[in-house]
Amino acid sequence: MAAEHDGWKPLMAELKARRQRALEAGGPDRIAREHRLGRRTARERIADLTDPGSFLEFGMLVTTPTEKGEMGPTFLCGLAEIDGRPVAIGAEDFTVEGGAVGVHLQRIKGSWGGFIEELALGYRVPLILLMQGTGGSVLIQELKGYAELQATNPVYSVFELLEQVPVLTAILGPTAGSSAARAALAHFSVMSKDNGCLFVGGPPVVKQALGRTVDKFELGGWEVQVKAAGLIDNAAETEADALAQIKSALSYFPQNTSHRPGVTPEGAWAENDQDAIFAIVNPDSRWPYDAQALIRCLADADTFFEIGP
């Protein structure tokens, strides 16, 4: 085997360093803080949701300017499989500048009309977004040296996606600004009760604008966004439950508008006791009945997935 040229050594060292930087995210202290709060990191969330070894990451070597120097990307994205189905997936990394949209990049990676959304549209595969981000970062723009007018960025793919492929979002922590708006633009959305909260501007913005101190959950927790506003479809007890709901909801969708939903093989499903309908519904139409019980009676056993309860 011929000896490699010496010029490769510094290049390979730089490649290794960038990969390591990406895996370290915002550093051990910020990762430990997320774990203390009962939250998983962006990379852990993708691993929890997707089939083992199926995640093919794009843009791993992207760096983010911070006050502590260069860090990895604020947004992780790529192709993966969920129960054997190919999907496009993106996750905001809150440990790196609050998971802010990468306005320092020539092309935004995702979560608001970015690369991963265009890729999902082009390949016509479901898009899964795991949200926990500030939407934007003044610090990144300051370090970049100039501000960018967000209104000039095209977002056509955000809306065209809804006509072509399933879009599912999970709000797993504080989510503000453009990230909050993006979370609602989906066919199915879920928010974790323990950490999920959603608002255009968080408590510091409310304090500055109105002089009022408000808790982030009082401002945009699940009781506000799921029960009162209805902006988000479902609530989940924990982050793990939220990801389980994403996986369950996806199983009812086709890959895109040219496909039909999957069919459960014969022998892998069971019907409920259909005669129970006579005990649920009174022949006198003036009598009310339990709609939940009726649906569960008519549907295959353990298949009713409720949206917007």
Protein model, in words:
The radius of gyration is 22 Å and the shape is globular. It starts with 7 loop residues before the first helix and ends in an 11-residue tail after the last helix. The relative contact order is 0.10. The strands form three sheets. It has a seven-stranded mixed beta sheet with strand order 1-4-5-6-7-9-11, sandwiched between helices. By secondary structure, it is α/β, with parallel strands linked by helices. The chain has helices at about 10-25, 30-35, 40-50, 115-125, 140-145, 155-165, 175-185, 205-210, 215-220, 220-230, 240-250, 275-280, 290-300; strands spanning about 55-60, 65, 70, 75-80, 85-90, 125-130, 165-170, 175, 190, 195-200, 235. The model has no long low-confidence stretch (mean pLDDT about 90). Helix 4 packs parallel to helix 6. It is about 35% helix and about 15% strand. It is built from 13 helices and eleven strands.
Largest sheet: 7 strands, mixed
Average pLDDT across residues?
Answer: 91
- Taking pLDDT < 50 over at least 5 consecutive residues as the criterion, the unreliable ranges are none
- If helices are DSSP runs of H or I spanning 4 or more residues, what is the number of helices? 13
- State the shape: globular
Rg, Å, rounded:
22 Å
Oligomer: single chain
**SSE-based structural type:** alpha/beta
